[in-house]
Specification:
single chain, 220 residues, alpha+beta, 5-stranded mixed β-sheet, 4-stranded antiparallel β-sheet, 32% strand
Length: 220
Amino acid sequence: PHLELRPLLRADGSARFSLGRSVAVAAVQGPRETKSRVKEVGDRATLEVVVRPRVGLPGLAERQLECHLLRQLDHIVLHQEYPRAQIVVVVQIVSEDGSVGAVAGNAAFLALLDAGVAMRATTLSVSVGVHLGGEAALPGAAVLLLDPTAKEETDCDAVVTICVDGTREQLISCLSSGMALDAVAWTNCVSAGGKAAKVLEAFLRMSLQKRLETFLRVPT
């Protein structure tokens, strides 16, 4: 994975996150005054998520991803800190080669972090490809593939994007496609995704710390 903070200077916060050949750029506008009184809430901020595809107009896949990201970000943003304000997160898919949901989710979280929006926890996303092994396979006897490419997703029976609260170690939201999973396979999928999210969090913390040290380094 690779991350870049503040690639867009005109946004209040932005981030670019890539995983292999999949790249997403997220921009945050706000917290700011709502443009319409209809969207204003007296005691908290309203959150809006927009996903733009690489080419063409948004379709069903983008709408599903927007709902998934809204659940993820709505869980961590401290809305009460910004009464009557609006926070808009726009995610642009730059390139696609699998694990798009995870790339978009991580870019959106990092953009909120860059914007200085108050949050209660760290939420990171991981995509898991699942090979069920056919009808003769034992329940839960599935092969899991973390962060699959587009070709690997095609070969999988199901693909699940998992968003985990790193502080409470609980599942916040998931986005799945393909065949239905039994309880054992689903539990294994969530467990593997949670462990991968911890590794990703450690990597991001280390990367951000190095960037901060470089920024604060005083030339001698």
